[in-house]
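Tutorial handout. Part one gives the primary structure; part two gives the three-dimensional structure as tokens.
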Amino acid sequence: MAREDHQPQAPSASRTDPEPLQGGDGAVKAAQPTKAREERDGLTFAVPRATSPRSVPKRAALSDPRLYFNRELSWLDFNWRVLYQALDERVPLLERVRFLAITASNLDEFFRKRVGGLRRQKAAGVQRLSPDGRTPEEQLRLISRAVRPMYRTLTETWEQTLKPLLREKAGIHIRDYASLEATQKAALHRYFMANVFPILTPLAVDPGHPFPFISNLSLSLAVTLRHPTRGTEHFARLKVPTSRGRWVPLSEPLHFVPLEQVIAANVHELFRGMEIVSVHPFRITRNADVRRDEEEADDLIEMIAEELRERRFAEVVRIEVDAGMPREVRELLMRELDLEPDDFYEVEGQIDLTDNVALADLDLPEHRYEPWEPVIPTRLLHEGEAKDRPNMFAVIRKGDLLVHHPYESFRASVQRFIEEAAEDPRVLAIKQTLYRTSDQSPIVDALRRAAESGKQVAVLVEVKARFDEQNNIEWGQILEKSGVHVTYGLVGLKTHTKTTLVIREEQDGLRAYCHIGTGNYNPSTARFYTDLGLLTCDPDIGFDLINLFHYLTGYSPEQNYRKLVVAPRDMRKTFIELIRKEVAHQKEHGTGRIIAKMNALDDVEMIGELYRASMAGVQIDLVVRGHCRLRPGLPRFSENIRVISILGRFLEHSRIFYFHNNGRPRVFIGSADWMRRNLDDRVEAAVEVEKAPLKARLIRTLQFALDDHVSAWELRPDGYYVLRRPRRADEKGFQEVLMDRARSRTLRADAPWDIR
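Part two.
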């Protein structure tokens, strides 16, 4: 095949610099994403950037900091893209409200984890530079400056755009207490006295009452009081209870008032005999980056429990305050919570938009996405030992099965595989890694039934899964009570791999059935996270999973794997070798081609290998949903690299890695992103998909992603993400195309070997 037949079809975008969105002081201006700032060559400029890249000399070494975006600022760019969904008029109204809540929730987690970690480094005097050449203190300053425009846009989007639209188009009225009629206020007073007043705890601050503990992410009211005769002013804190819900309904349908306003209007009932000077909401965020030395822990569960206790009382890393809060109250909060001025974030409107998800869940289907019902994979409908319920093991014996959620049903494939294994009398053993699962998990129920029926069941429950530690400890204890052999992770490593092994006795001996996936065994998130899974009885993969579980549950770190690619053992090495092989193919045949789809890209060594490959002429496309350190399109270094990010109704979570291999493609799926933590500090597993129809399906999936001109954002060398413009009015995005193909059951085996 001639060289041009292998040449990828690069996007037609011009590399002309876009209009700058930074002021003279370097602060990022808030954009209006609903209106294109500029259109060039099929690309629409939409949102500001948090990154501040610098020009790179062509003779720079690959270690030059100017070749890398800052991880934290790149993550903020990702959150801008999520925020854009709330402004996108193509998105149903209540889904826009949901995206706004997700943006706010993402920001909460960012401060807890990333800002908390940087604060911890700063306090420890760490001066180590990030790959882009910044100290922890410098990064904190950049974050503080970059986040403030996001706050303004979040608030403006809610107060000036979505609230009016909810009223006009959906009949949902978010009322201010001050605008209510006297009869409505009287009704709310009765509600307050009956349902809220009894559970409130006013906490005064004076010499006899120390400043109260304030829990993480709780909404509070700062109340300033004056003694009527002495004239002295006092401070009290009120926690807004979460048990009553944020939105208090009025008698009119779909009319709501925020609970904090109801409390503020009736706060005099709590402080009788005092004058109310002011009432202002505020909210704090505590550091979640609390770590202990696992090597010194005698009991991993107790160590995690102690970390959770420490996290509850960890330092405050952010305080959100009402813009009208008096200076004296701010100074008191700053002093008592040990804060700096930069830790304060003013909000001119509703504090804490995460509770808006309750509004997005209102039963108004005309303002939400059309419900999606995952289809049952075709082979599970038509193959097996019984027409009404095909036997999973018979289906897998006939050939590997690739499932793509949520287009295909998790419940009817992966969940059923585990449930059938639990019930099948021929199954002798089930082993699984459990990183996150759902409430009332059918996966856990099946594992318990299997153990109670006498099967050998072993589960690694990862208790270090961030923010799911307590849930996972409880799941582990529940499993143990049913006789499941539970281990809680490896010292120094987090087990992130998504694997299940079933050992079944058959006429020709024991056979291993395997599932290797990119996502968690969580039926709830499987409905809106896109993930892939391979179900196989390949004996080599079975051998590898047996050895992997021996490593996870016993003392056998030195394992040899035939087909499985495992981190931290050999995943980094394997992917580097595959990249370098493409360089060799490019030099010899001119056919170098790489496509990688992942959630995030920040590993400097992997980025360096991609730069070298690009410099050798290898054509590289990266589909990276979240943050990305790599700078595409730089003369000499990355002219042959393109990066896109796809956002839509589903959260892109699958990882696919394609290497052209001079016309004999190799395609992998797995649990790991190309991040240092995944490649070095976690147990991860990837597997090559070898069967031609399944490989073709993955290749076609990547083709659809690269061809998306509806929901794909392209990353420019200067750090701007620009939304591609649809080429025709009826064009559909990546996820919509896959939904259509799922409905028509054309998900498999119609792709060519080459990606152009």
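Part three, for discussion. The CA atoms of residues 220 and 240 lie 5 Å apart. The two ends are 13 Å apart (CA to CA).
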